[in-house]
Design a protein that fits this description.
mainly alpha; about 170 residues
Amino acid sequence: GGGAFLIPYVLFLVIAGMPLFYMELALGQYNREGAATVWKICPVFKGVGYTVIIIALYVGFYYNVIIAWSLYYLYSSFTHELPWMKCGHPWNNENCTNPNIFNASSLSNGTKYSKIKLTPAAQFYERGVLNLHESQGIHDLGLPHWKLTLCLVVVVFILYFSLWKGVKTS
């Protein structure tokens, strides 16, 4: 299971993660420096500051994409019937199965229904939103889809205008 991962995760979190995080916060606040310039007191650790900035950049990109997907789902939900509730849409294939037909969580051969991922909701996400069926693999990324790109642009504009004037304190 996934529980075996928790042991090294907690171990490294306690030994390295939290002490380094608190040390960087304390040094940054005491010296009034940012993540990259606070390490000028010990140039050997200068890469730690740049790594923190790069990780924050990657996490920011990742979360913006998730917010764009949420915005796309919000836009898609403004219909009479939600598009991920039943089969029969252009993104569904012949293997789309309505989960309400089955009364059990397992099929007759013992396979869990959730493992075969043929629900309309899973096909809406994988085939309707991400268009995974059009790609041959990780080497074939394809072109950006205009609806998702538009949602991402809207998210970037919302973030820009939220942070434009900076944080005001009362």
